[in-house]
Amino acid sequence: GQSLEQPSEVTAVEGAIVQINCTYQTSGFYGLSWYQQHDGGAPTFLSYNALDGLEETGRFSSFLSRSDSYGYLLLQELQMKDSASYFCAYRGYNKLIFGAGTRLAVHP
Amino acid sequence: DTAVSQTPKYLVTQMGNDKSIKCEQNLGHDTMYWYKQDSKKFLKIMFSYNNKELIINETVPNRFSPKSPDKAHLNLHINSLELGDSAVYFCASSQGIANEKLFFGSGTQLSVL
User: Fold this and answer.
1) CA-CA distance, A59 to A38, in Å (whole number)?
2) Is the pLDDT of residue A94 over 90?
């Protein structure tokens, strides 16, 4: 079958580092994407990993291990504005399939 | 200029009514989508169109009818609204079917009373 699993909630303090994990199960896999969605807002694209390894974009990094069917999003130097939901996603047949999302709460 | 714009932002209506949501993108993308996000924030694809052609219809009730008059527009008409249709509906677009980067509209919060 096809599935994506990620924790439902993560809590962290300002300035800390947090890792949001995502495991997937699918018969055909092209890569893993990450999206951010603030409350009341639209999902916005953060990153995409097609190959194994770490991709860094500013304070955010994303990692993929195809052999482990696993990826993560790493957020460094957390800020209050990073409080949002984060979704991992993979491409199915002509469509992007999203995980259930991880709600990140950043506290002072 | 907003890249993907959808209207209205809020829609409150009675059960049994018919309503439409409009979506337009000015990114020059070939592919457009409708996603439904329920109260648990689960994002589920409903339809995708590529160059005005329906590519995906994800077992959506036929009360939902998308229409793409051109590549830049994808509208969603819903007949005989039901309580369970209450959700946030997002329009999105991408450059090609296989592109991982989707651009989402701001969403339409539909409340069926």
Assistant:
1) 17
2) no
